[in-house]
C-alpha cells in the first residue's frame, strides 16, 4: 500500500487565525494523483505537484489566512489502485479535491467515487470526453483538453488537407477507444473514410505487428490513438519500418511537449497535433515555464501541468468566495458561476456539463534548423476559438444539461 498512498506531502501555504475554521479540519487539502513513475510520468507525474504548489503560492493563500496542503500519489495507471487511493484520501486523510488523474479508465472510476463522497474532481490529465457526456457529474470539471477537442482540431485539419483515408493504432482502454471514436466521427463527417483499426495493449513496447497492419491498409493517415511512451515508441518504430518514406503519414492524436523532446526533432518534425497550451506563446507562459523547470529537474511544463495550475487557482477562488470547502457540489457550482481567469489559460468559462472552455491550438513540430533552443519545439498553425474547440453541450448527452 505504500506506493498507493501519498508519495509526497507538502505544506505549501500556512495561515492562522479564525479564518481556518471556515474550512474542513482547518485545512484545504489537495490530492494530486497521476502516473508518477511510468508511461505518463514526464507529461504529468511529479510536475503536476509542482504546478499545484505554484498555483497555491501565486494565489497568496498564506497571506489570506488559508492553510493549504498538497499530497501526491501514484495510481500506476490502474483503476483499482486509483480508487483505493482516493477512498483513503477522502475517508482517512480528509482530502477535499482530487486533481489531474491521467488515464481515462482511472479518471472514470474516480469520477464516481468523488460524486458519492461529495468532494471535487478537477481533471487535467484524462482525455475521455465521456466525463462531460453521459458520465458527467456535478462534482467534476474537465479542465484542459478532451478526445473530442483533439479529434476536432487534428482530425479535421488533416482531412481538409488531403488525408482522407485513415487507419487507427489504438491503446486498448477507455482513453484510446474514446479518441478513436471521436476522431473517426470527425474524419467521416468531413468526407474521409476509416479503413480499419488495431488495438494494442496498454502500455506497450513492441508495435511491429500493429504497424505492419497499418502499413498494409494503404491508408494515407495512420492515427495514433495513444499517448506518452506508447506514442513515442510507435513513432520511432514507424521510422524503422520506413512508413513515412513509403508515403503514409502519422497523426499523433495526443502529443505532448515531453513526447516531442523524447523523440527529437529529426524524427518528430512535421507532426501536427492539437494542444491547449504551449510554454512559448507569451511572456506569462515563458515566465511560468522557467520557474516550473527550475523545480522539475529542468523539464518544461506540458499542457497538463498548465491545466493543473489553472484548475487549482480557480478552485481556490471559489472556496475563498464560499468561505467553505465542505460541500463539493457547492464548490463546483461556484466554479461554474465564476468566469475563469488566470495567467496561463487566460479568460474562460465552465459550462453546466463541467467542460472548461478556452481556445485550443493546432501546432506543428519544427524542423531542426528552425529550433532556437532545447525546448523550442512547436510552431503555431492555427488557433481554434473557444466556442469551436469543444463539443457542443447539446451533443454530449450530459444528464446535468436541461434539454
Summarize this structure briefly.
The chain is of the alpha/beta class and 403 residues long.
Structure commentary:
The protein is α/β, with parallel strands linked by helices and 403 residues long. It folds into two domains: 8-145 and 281-358, 3-Layer(aba) Sandwich (Rossmann fold), CATH 3.40.50.2300; 148-275 and 359-389, 3-Layer(aba) Sandwich (Rossmann fold). The chain has 13 helices and 16 strands. Strands 1-3-2-4-5-6 form a six-stranded mixed β-sheet, sandwiched between helices. Helix 2 (79-91) runs parallel beside helix 3 (104-117). The radius of gyration is 20 Å and the shape is globular. The model is unreliable at 1-21 (pLDDT under 50).
The end-to-end span amounts to 45 Å
- Please tell me the CATH architecture of the largest domain by its name: 3-Layer(aba) Sandwich
Strand order of the largest sheet: 1-3-2-4-5-6
> What is the total number of structural domains?
2
CATH-defined superfamily of the largest domain = Response regulator
Q: Please count the beta strands (DSSP E, at least 2 residues each).
A: 16
Radius of gyration: 20 Å
Amino acid at each position: 500500500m505504500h506506493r498507493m498512498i501519498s508519495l509526497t506531502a507538502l505544506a505549501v501555504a500556512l495561515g492562522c487565525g479564525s479564518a481556518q475554521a471556515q474550512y474542513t479540519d482547518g485545512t484545504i487539502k489537495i490530492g494530486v494523483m497521476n502516473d508518477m513513475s511510468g508511461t505518463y510520468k514526464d507529461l504529468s507525474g511529479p510536475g503536476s505537484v509542482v504546478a499545484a504548489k505554484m498555483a497555491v503560492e501565486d494565489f497568496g493563500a498564506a497571506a489570506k489566512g488559508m492553510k493549504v496542503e498538497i499530497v501526491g500519489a501514484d495510481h500506476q495507471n490502474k483503476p483499482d489502485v486509483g480508487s483505493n487511493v482516493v477512498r483513503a484520501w477522502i475517508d482517512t486523510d480528509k482530502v477535499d479535491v482530487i486533481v489531474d488523474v491521467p488515464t481515462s479508465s482511472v479518471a472514470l472510476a474516480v469520477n464516481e467515487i468523488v460524486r458519492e463522497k461529495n468532494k471535487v474532481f478537477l481533471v487535467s490529465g484524462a482525455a475521455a470526453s465521456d466525463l462531460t457526456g453521459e458520465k458527467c457529474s456535478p462534482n467534476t470539471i474537465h479542465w484542459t483538453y478532451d478526445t473530442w477537442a483533439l479529434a476536432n482540431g487534428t482530425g479535421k485539419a488533416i482531412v481538409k488537407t488531403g488525408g482522407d483515408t485513415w487507419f487507427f493504432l489504438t491503446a486498448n482502454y477507455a482513453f484510446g477507444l474514446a479518441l478513436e471514436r471521436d476522431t473517426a466521427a470527425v474524419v467521416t463527417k468531413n468526407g474521409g473514410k476509416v479503413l480499419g483499426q488495431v488495438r494494442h495493449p496498454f502500455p506497450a513496447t513492441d508495435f511491429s505487428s500493429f504497424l505492419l497492419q497499418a502499413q498494409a491498409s494503404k491508408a494515407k493517415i495512420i492515427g495514433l490513438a495513444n499517448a506518452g511512451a506508447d506514442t513515442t515508441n510507435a513513432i520511432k518504430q514507424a521510422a524503422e519500418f520506413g512508413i513515412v518514406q513509403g508515403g503514409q503519414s502519422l497523426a499523433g492524436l495526443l502529443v505532448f511537449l515531453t513526447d516531442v523532446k523524447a523523440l527529437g526533432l529529426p524524427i518528430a518534425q512535421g507532426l501536427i497535433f492539437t494542444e491547449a497550451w504551449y510554454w512559448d506563446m507569451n511572456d506569462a507562459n515563458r515566465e511560468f515555464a522557467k520557474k516550473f523547470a527550475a523545480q522539475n529537474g529542468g523539464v518544461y511544463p506540458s499542457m497538463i501541468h498548465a491545466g493543473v495550475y489553472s484548475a487549482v487557482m480557480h478552485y481556490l477562488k471559489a472556496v475563498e468566495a464560499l468561505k467553505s470547502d465542505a460541500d463539493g457540489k457547492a464548490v463546483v457550482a461556484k466554479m461554474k458561476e465564476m468566469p475563469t481567469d488566470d495567467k496561463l489559460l487566460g479568460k474562460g468559462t465552465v459550462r453546466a456539463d463541467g467542460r472548461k472552455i478556452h481556445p485550443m491550438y493546432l501546432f506543428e513540430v519544427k524542423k531542426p534548423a528552425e529550433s532556437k533552443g532545447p525546448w523550442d519545439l512547436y510552431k503555431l498553425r492555427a488557433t481554434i476559438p473557444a466556442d469551436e474547440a469543444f463539443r457542443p453541450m447539446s451533443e454530449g448527452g450530459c444528464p446535468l444539461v436541461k434539454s
